[in-house]
Amino acid sequence: MNIMKPSAYAVKAISIEYIRRSLRSVALAGIIIATILIIVAILLVRQSEWWLVMFTPILFIVFICTILLIAAWYVLHTFSVDVTATQKKLVSDFVDKLTRVSEVAKTPTFILLFRVIRDVVRPSRRTSFVISMTQDSSTLHKDFITLQKNFS
Predict the structure, then answer these.
(1) Is the dihedral of CA 17, 134, 12, 93 positive or negative?
(2) pTM over 0.85
(3) 119-142 confidence digits (pLDDT tens)
């Protein structure tokens, strides 16, 4: 049952999807790096046991990162909202557009991610980052036309 305002519900769904995508790419890169490190560790330990001493801190870091990744996934699952298939498609399309706008504006991903997370954690703010970015990009064309007419 949806007891939140529609705009807060939409912002939360958009934020969770954006964070999920960011986490998925970080997880993929981490899995690839961890797999390579473990394979190299196994190959070198077969040559000499002293390599195990050198790789123990690295394997410990891989273990800690895995636990952090699982915890982040759990928190994401806890905060996620129930959406219909249509809503999921709309949210996915919106996140695609939001990502393209941020790439054009050259906003670093971690800053965009921070602002999106802040919208989820503190939803009581008057306007959220997602809403203000949407409004700014939709009025940008009108503002340019007005400016262009002013120069004529």
Answers:
(1) negative
(2) no
(3) 777 766 666 777 777 777 677 667
Q: 28-45 in b/e burial notation, b at 16+ Cβ within 10 A?
A: eeeeeebeeeeeebeeee
Phi, psi of 4 (to 5 degrees): -85, 165
Distance CA 152, CA 137 (A): 24
Concatenated DSSP letters of 85-121: HHHHHHHHHHHHHHHHHHHHTT--HHHHHHHHHHHHH
Confirm if 16 and 120 have CB atoms less than 8 A apart.
yes
Quote the CA–CA distance of 113 and 121 in Å, as a whole number: 12
Instruction: Locate 86 and state its tokens.
Output: 């249509």
